């Protein structure tokens, strides 16, 4: 068995290794982020369209509007006049509907959208919808958070294009704003929208007229954020906790494995939070519960690092208090991390493959913990049922009392 002093000499090397890995990961993430921002700049120009022939005032005069291609052949024109922002979305059209949504975090759920279409009878329709959920019944007409002014919104077709025009009354000018674009190929029935044929999300910079596609840079960052979180908080850290609880008879191997695995898991967890903060600064996503729980779990994990550094000796009077602190803070961190992974997938609108994958991983961890807990309980029960003079030999095998 190794002496406790050997561990004192070894753990600073592990700390330095993990910090070096964290710094390298952060630099690589920042470099990729900067590269993606440059690549996202749009340099195309818009088509020259005469809106005076088919749109009513005040949408006819667009001579001073800023125009930017945003997706496929979709074009967004806008102009700020005082606290009024005038917008015109132009898109290809045959039948169905076209919509533009305004989101806090780039997600559909919780956003408000302006949707326009031409009915079967040739009537132009444009309505605001509140996207409360993903089901059709949760897309609510004439509701939403868009500050529309008293000027009626307008929609019209011109050739093979449809044009949605509306005005927003805002006290604070738009800057970087997550925008959703989508279209469906079926007429809305009783103002119920059909499922979209295609969609995208962009972060539109109204101060510069440029776009950065969420579907490339930010979506990749969001995916990496989820992968790091699931690997670190959902796999590595639970494995380290299982080793600490159920393999203490392999002393001191269990301590080394536990420390190394938890350092690696902490690195993944810290990288997850850093990437999440970068996403927040870019998208200004208002996912308060997910963000708050993530930071709280990180704080708990940092306290666990301090617990390792300040670990008292086995014969210390405060060792029992330290064991309670280390054990329960670790459990709390894992519980909140599991909750936060679910909240993150829900906020990101993760597909079934993500949910099934994490559910499978979570099920394995819980099953392993239950099986090992039952085995440990049975072993403790067996030891309590042994005669008082029963002894254990040095190699772990039972030695029966002499004379039997």
UniProtKB/TrEMBL annotation:
GO terms for cellular component: membrane. It comes from the Eukaryota. InterPro entries: Cyt_b561/ferric_Rdtase_TM (IPR006593), DOH_DOMON (IPR045266), DOMON_domain (IPR005018). It is found in: Membrane. Residues 187-381 form the Cytochrome b561 domain. Pfam families: Cytochrom_B561 (PF03188), DOMON (PF03351). Residues 1-32 form the signal peptide. The chain crosses the membrane at residues 226-247, 254-280, 292-310, 331-350, 356-378. The keyword Signal applies. Residues 72-184 form the DOMON domain. Keywords: Electron transport, Membrane, Signal, Transmembrane, Transmembrane helix, Transport. This is Cytochrome b561 and DOMON domain-containing protein. The gene is Vigan.09G172100.
